[in-house]
Design a protein that fits this description.
Elements: H1 3-13, H2 36-63, H3 78-82, H4 87-103, H5 110-143, E1 147-150, E2 153-156, H6 166-190, H7 215-221, H8 244-278, H9 282-322
Helix pairs in contact: 2-6, 2-8, 2-9, 4-5, 4-6, 4-8, 5-6, 5-9, 6-8, 6-9
């Protein structure tokens, strides 16, 4: 029997409330039906693979010379100047209200959720973007360039180095992060509604889990939390206590954020396709895409796992001391 299972058994014997059993259970704080996390994971991987096919198609068109090299689109178009040049800003525009809206559906640990979202997106995401585009990529291009001598000084020849596609990297990392951050919110509304209309279930009060519930019942009814969580501390979703007017404002805001996030994702796919066809070689585009996928994996499968593992370890130690 694992340490987590023994802890759950001791808590039942002493009539203590049951806590989350794994680190994955507290990533999104709320309990979710079986398969929801699998759907979210599958959805993200499918998006990464589909976008990879788009990048391969665009790079293949360029590699096979289907389009003449002298055909270059105008880079000063509205879409490029307003969206492409400010891609990370638009990422934050989508994800900041997303974090706030999802926080309203939480029963506990709202501050913890906001802090983790801020660290994932603003701190870690921005740092990785700056590290690759401002430090690594320029140095790779410089190191692989041909040089010529001007006034006794060797300078790199423009266009001769390996120019990793910074636009592909940034747009793809933005797309993957938006997908990862939005999908729990969408799944929570459309997959967890138990066949009722979207949003309606957010206003329902749930029966608190007791020590007599079985494992599956506990999974379906427990508001999962970090540390101890007594029944007297349980509270309904904040949305169950607000007026109808505020509720409709929330639904409208929620719908707008989802729609705008999907629009940004589709726009990024189109722009990456154009970049792969007209502005970078096959290998330069593919490398940018692979770096973006690797950074998504690092943020959500490595960094977040380490953070959750540390939180669960601290929570288990506190419960051992309390018991």
């Amino acid at each position: 029997m694992s340490d987590s299972s023994r802890l759950q058994t001791r808590r039942r014997q002493k009539n203590h409330p049951i806590m989350a059993e794994t680190s994955a259970d507290i990533v999104r704080v709320e309990a979710s039906p079986p398969g929801t996390r699998r759907r979210r994971l599958l959805n993200t991987y499918i998006v990464i693979l589909l976008v990879g096919l788009v990048v391969l198609c665009g790079s293949g068109i360029r590699a096979l010379s289907f389009i003449p090299e002298d055909v270059v689109p105008n880079t000063r178009n509205l879409w490029n100047r307003v969206f492409n040049k400010w891609a990370w800003l638009w990422t934050l525009v989508v994800l900041t209200p997303n974090a706030l809206l999802e926080c309203f559906t939480k029963r506990k640990n709202r501050i913890q959720y906001l802090v983790l979202s801020f660290i994932r997106v603003v701190v870690l995401g921005t740092s990785l973007w700056a590290f690759w585009t401002k430090f690594v990529m320029p140095r790779v291009e410089y190191a692989t360039s041909d040089f010529e001598t001007k006034d006794g000084v060797e300078v790199p020849v423009s266009g001769t180095g390996f120019d990793i596609s910074g636009h592909t990297f940034l747009l793809m990392m933005s797309l993957f992060i938006i997908q990862e951050e939005l999908s729990p919110l969408i799944l929570g509304i459309f997959y967890e509604a138990n066949k009722s209309p979207p949003f309606i279930h957010l206003r329902k009060r749930e029966r608190p889990c007791t020590a007599n519930d079985t494992g599956k019942e506990a999974h379906n009814t427990l508001t999962q939390d970090v540390g101890r969580d007594s029944e007297s501390e349980r509270e309904a979703s904040p949305l169950s206590n607000i007026s109808n007017a505020l509720y409709y404002v929330y639904v409208f805001s929620f719908t707008f954020v989802i729609a705008f996030g999907i629009f940004i994702q589709l726009l990024w796919v189109i722009m990456v396709f154009m970049t792969s066809v007209f502005f970078h070689t096959f290998l330069e585009t593919i490398v940018g895409y692979l770096i973006a996928a690797a950074m998504w994996f690092f943020i959500y499968k490595v960094f977040q796992w380490l953070v959750m593992k540390a939180i669960v370890k601290v929570g288990n130690q506190e419960d051992d001391n309390a018991i």
